[in-house]
């Protein structure tokens, strides 16, 4: 169940005041990567750091980390039970995400973190994470159309909801690669609050942090990765000025090359599940903006000499499947369509009907072959590997599909 609002979460956490400072990150795309960069750099700088992201990757507790390690299941369940008992005693009827948020915040208290890097769940203004008061810096990443039923059906309306995390007296960093419409909305709110703001853009980062610009030249990065890193490093700089003024952000930059965010342009091996030696690209692109980024990456990196691509895809029910798959799938490609399994803690999340998705792809994309595997992910992997015959193979369309793939492989969320 999704029900935005701050009244229930405020009462839930009122019982245990937050003892840590926060970096708060909102946006449509890139906020998870920015969160990972900021927390990884803080930990590298010796700051005891917690991180809270959503959705979880493998298990419900891996969305909460302390110093880049997922919390122990026993601690998570102990605190979650206490939060649920509190909810019951107060008669709040909190949502699943509110219970999870309260659990994460309570774990940060118990683990005595100094800074919690917190990713907004949905929107910003009415998101459960927006009860944060002791915020060092707010960050707003790339904004696009997503969750329109809850946030509004225009880019401006969605930007206004995201801007709801901005607070008087708290500096902010916004992704300068946003559209002019989005930037106008964000800057209007910044002016209203009279806060210090930095518009981060990789093209001008050399004027503020020359060492980061040099790092961009050394690393083989995509444009969106540069934008996310620019936001993260400037946010880190703002945070360190308040908690570790003696530390220089430049000294921590080498750590950036070691930080990975699972499920985003991730190269994996499907062995021993299938007989394929070549790596497979795994990406959680699940809306038009992220699909466009993935599509450009695949076109540039995998379609050399006109090679076709084999796909394994799924989508969440209610998503605009044309918006997701038109930037990805090209004439001559082959596609295995699957449904991801039940999502622990989020029973309202359902996969798009595979017959419907298969029919749509077959009729609109001019593909070579489409095969419906329903919930048989292993069968889809075997078929796609055979069809690809060593050529490019990409798994995309849903973060929940990413989770199923990694769970099937027995993967664990890597320490960053």
Walk across the major sheet and give the strand order.
Answer: 4-3-2-5-1-6-7-8
Outline, from the CA principal axes?
A: globular
Number of helices: 16
> Quaternary arrangement of the chains shown?
single chain
Q: How does the major sheet shape up?
A: 8 strands, mixed
Using the coordinates above, name the CATH class of the largest domain.
Alpha Beta
* Poorly predicted ranges: 411-416
> What string gives the helices and strands in order?
HEHEEEHHEEHHEHEHHHHEEHEHEHEHEH
- Mean pLDDT, as a whole number? 91
CATH superfamily of the largest domain: Mur-like, catalytic domain
Beta content comes to 5-15%
* Helix content class: 40-55%
Number of strands: 14
Q: What is the radius of gyration computed over CA atoms, rounded to a whole number of angstroms?
A: 21 Å
How many domains?
2
What is the SS-derived class? Answer: alpha/beta
Fill in the CATH topology of the largest domain: UDP-N-acetylmuramoyl-L-alanine:D-glutamate ligase
CATH architecture of the largest domain: 3-Layer(aba) Sandwich
- In whole angstroms, the N-to-C terminal distance is 31 Å
